Amino acid sequence: MDRRRFLGTAGLGLTVLSGALGRVADHRPKLTILQTNDTHSRIDPFPMDGSRNQGLGGIARRKVLVDRIRDREEHTLLVDSGDMFQGTPYYNLYGGEVEIEAMNRVGYDVATVGNHEFDNGIAGLEKTMPLARFEWVSSNLDWSGAKSLAPLVKPWTIREIGPFKVGLFGVLCELKGMVASHNHVGVIYLDPVESARRSVAELKARGCNLIVCLSHMGYRTRYEGEQMRDDRFPAQVEGIDLVLGGHSHTFLDDLVALPRKGGGVTRVTQQGWAGMRLGRVEVRLERGDGLAMRQDPLVVA
Ligand SMILES: [Zn+2]
């Protein structure tokens, strides 16, 4: 049983283990951010059919892991980086209601909109988005032509958790080539860099000490013509501390630290797809306004 598998099955084994090794307790304030992306209607674990992913994932196990972490950690946040829809018959049969209700029960705080959320068009979103008991953020979509949805999606939101004032905003990949035009009638795509700059400025002005981007742009994506990607974004937008990505289904085992515009680094990660992995990033506030981060994702098995 390798270490990650152990962590997944034994839940918070790491915490117990590090205590047993007599590591000095770290008293800096800590926020644990849990993340999924591209869960793609995978309510059940992959079937035991001899395939590579057999037995992995499943919303019930995800909830068990999230609950355990919330029991132990004082400050937590659970987010999703988009594409919760499409991929199994649950979506074809129920149009996304099952996915949203499952996320409600796991207790998500904030999610961004992925391209597959549009697969049943605006009418499909009108049936599903209002069911969410979590917040939707997307900074580079203008919903003013889709009147019933406009009040449901904000460019950004702020969560005050202990000493953390967390500013979260969303960005989405180009709609062109990704979403059929008849499926996003009334929703206009805005430049992600400009939109992100505006959100970061507003979040900074409100005193956020941690800026998190929920990105559905992809990391080193293979899609031709897509100009913006998570690995290029930090060089163009100042002030983002952490990008929790999606879209390219990339498993990043460690946080990728990229130099950011205006100095400092932006850390980027992504948790593959299908809910096989629950991302866990621990952020600690340091003296001054510094942030220390480490990633330790959990295998959902
Ligand atoms: Zn996507």
Describe the structure.
- Belongs to the 5'-nucleotidase family.
- GO terms for molecular function: hydrolase activity, acting on ester bonds; metal ion binding; nucleotide binding.
- The chain is an alpha/beta fold.
- The chain has a single domain, classed as Purple Acid Phosphatase, chain A, domain 2 (4-Layer Sandwich).
- It contains 7 helices and 16 strands.
- The strands form 3 sheets. Strands 1, 2, 3, 4, 6, 14, 15 and 16 form an 8-stranded mixed β-sheet that branches. It has a 6-stranded mixed β-sheet with strand order 7-8-10-11-13-12, covered by helices on one side. Strands 5-9 form a two-stranded antiparallel ribbon.
- A hairpin with a 5-residue loop joins strand 14 and strand 15.
- Helix 3 runs parallel beside helix 5.
- The longest helix is centred in the N-terminal third of the chain and has 14 residues.
- The radius of gyration is 18 Å and the shape is globular.
- It starts with a helix and ends with a strand.
- Bound molecules: zinc ion (ZN).
- Zinc ion binds next to loops.
